[in-house]
From TrEMBL:
Alphabetical keyword list: Nucleus, Transferase, Ubl conjugation pathway
Compartments where found: Nucleus
Name by which UniProt lists this protein: Ubiquitin conjugation factor E4 core domain-containing protein
MF (Gene Ontology): ubiquitin-ubiquitin ligase activity
Predominant localisation class: nucleus
Any one GO CC term of the record: ubiquitin ligase complex
Pfam families: Ufd2P_core
Domain Ubiquitin conjugation factor E4 core: 10-259
Top-level taxon in the UniProt lineage: Eukaryota
UniProt xrefs under InterPro entries: Ub_conjug_fac_E4_core, UBE4
GO BP terms: ERAD pathway; protein polyubiquitination; ubiquitin-dependent protein catabolic process
């Protein structure tokens, strides 16, 4: 009872609004985003099956069962396409709403990082109890929305992304603070979507250039994550591990050509680019 009274005493209206907003976004917008991702995957799978069945029919392998399967798949594809359009029209077309949601998650990121002393590397070896008590979906939702908006033209245009970049660099290779490999994989996906040749956003054009935390720790943490990351307990664990390492390799290849990286090519962390054994300090 004493603890409850203390919590009630130190909590206030702004604090309650913050946590209620996080919960509402988790149950509302982020649930819709997860549903959209599921629908998109199912639609892609059904379209592949439909294309394969049509190819069999075109080759003269038609049968009543095949025709029935094609008809069924066509109906499923049409229904899933309608669902996808509905979700996209409500979520992806409202850039102003997405930017407001990003602003909230930027606040959440800054608050979370503030609990461990701010953006500084290396991270403290002992993490505070307050950070350990943060619900995992806080950071997961922030990364999910960032990954989604990074693939939408003009959605994060003009939005400051430096804090998200700092957060990804700081935590993606830290097993002490974040243990979920899928969350770390999403961080890599976000960085990959910001690569200049893959992004049309002006806000990401110079994001990796002249950024001190990038210069000092991005390559180091990507290499560490590439070695450490493992996906266990899933029937797709080997594919997931290969997939994230492939994305890390693409990121490292891109960073090799970024102008400011030219100054760091003699770094021990870059020896692997030159075909030499990596010599981390």
């Amino acid at each position: 009872m004493a603890v409850e009274r203390q919590i009630k005493r130190i909590s206030h209206f702004i604090c309650e609004c913050f946590f209620m907003t996080a919960r509402v976004l988790n149950l509302g917008v982020m649930k819709a985003v997860a549903d959209l991702k599921h629908i998109s995957r199912e639609l892609a799978r059904c379209e592949d099956d439909l294309e394969a069945n049509n190819a069999i029919r075109d080759q003269g392998g038609s049968s009543p069962q095949l025709e029935q399967d094609i008809t069924c798949l066509e109906k499923i594809v049409a229904a899933l396409s309608q669902e996808q359009f509905c979700y996209e029209s409500q979520i992806l077309r409202d850039s102003a709403f997405l930017q407001r949601a990003l602003s909230f998650y930027r606040l959440m990121i800054l608050w979370s990082v503030g609990l461990v002393g701010g953006f500084k590397m290396p991270s403290p070896s002992e993490w505070p109890m307050e950070f350990s008590c943060i619900p995992e979906h806080f950071l997961d939702d922030a990364t999910d929305l960032l990954a989604l908006t990074s693939r939408i033209p003009k959605a994060p245009e003009g939005f400051p992304l430096d804090d998200f970049l700092n957060f990804n660099i700081m935590f993606m290779a830290s097993s002490s603070y974040i243990k979920n490999p899928y969350l770390k994989a999403k961080m890599v996906e976000v960085l990959k979507s910001w690569m200049l040749q893959r992004s049309s956003l002006k806000s990401t054009a110079s994001l990796f250039e002249g950024h001190q935390l990038c210069l000092d720790y991005l390559v180091k943490n990507l290499l560490k994550l590439c070695v450490d990351i493992e996906f266990n307990g899933s029937h797709t664990q080997f594919f997931d591990t290969f997939n994230i390492r492939h994305k890390i390799a693409e990121l490292l290849e891109y960073l090799w050509d970024v102008p400011w990286r030219q100054m760091a090519k003699d770094s021990p962390w870059c020896s692997c680019f030159r075909g030499e054994p990596c010599r981390p300090q």
